[in-house]
Design a protein that fits this description.
By secondary structure, the protein is an alpha+beta fold. It is built from 8 helices and 11 strands.
Amino acid sequence: MATRGTPRRKAGHAGSAHSRQHCSARCTTKDSELAGDRLDPDRMKLDSPQCLLDQEEAGEAGDRQLLEPETWRTYAERRIALRKFLTADLSPQLLKRHHAHVELLRKCSYYIEILPKHLALGDQNPRVLPTTFQFIEPQKFQRMKKVGATQAKIQLLLLGELLEQLGHGHSELDALLESPDPQPFLAGWGLVEQRLADLSAVMESFLATMVPGRLHIKHRLVSDINATKIPNLQVTLSAKTPVTFDRKESVAHEDWASLRWSVTLQPAAPEQFELRYKLLDPQTQQERVQYSIIPVAAYAFDVPNLLPNRSYEFTIKRVEGYTLVYEPWLDSLTLQTGPRAVEGPAPRRLGKLGPALTTPS
């Protein structure tokens, strides 16, 4: 019995040793992998550039293995075409510039320009216009101004709508580009091409709408009697950039304010402006009349006779002309005057200084 039991113990001992050796090998491999992870910080960060690059390369390698070579080439070319469209024709920088331009147009003033058809916009002679206005019926001109205001409002609303469509289209195509699904670039590429064509058409409409153009009027401005005395006229809608205060140079003092302004994106030219100011939160009847409208033919003005330590609101605009049809925005500025200076007692006069005292050595 003993002699038979001894080999069993040896076999069991050998099996235990083999198990320990196998376990040791596995532990050594696992420890080396953990040590490798600890030594390579980029592999430990799931959002690191190296990790993302590895994931993208692995995804492309997997897609390449699933697709035939010719199919893979088509898939890659279409992805490149879509990426080019999103970085050139519909880039975020381009959309940002268009947003800024639309915001500027929303602050512009809109005017009617009446010119003979043989003159281009901007080439008009000021001496010709008064003569032309003599033959235009006032009632028809007022109706035309209402049409111009309506057209300006519609154009601004349309610009906002078109710009929103471009933004949604960019987000939609960008999500498609980041998707790992290759089907939109293969079986569904026709829909993607149609979407690209639609967005290109929207961009063309947007660019055309940004420029105020010819007014669409149904009636003649000149009566049949006067029609033979003047040439054919064309009516267009033009925009002037807004007048804005210089926030750095406009300051308030104890009882007066120094104001400076300019025309956006235009050099200083002779223009007539209208400066308004009023006292905020008047307390008495006398304070309620602290407002005024001042015509100014310059780009600066000092407003006197203000109350100390009070807040005033200032607005600036062009003088309203006969051809103005729509002015949706005016720049305003709030300034607070300084406190009244405290009048203390007059300083005592000192006597005449005598010779300096000396100490005998």
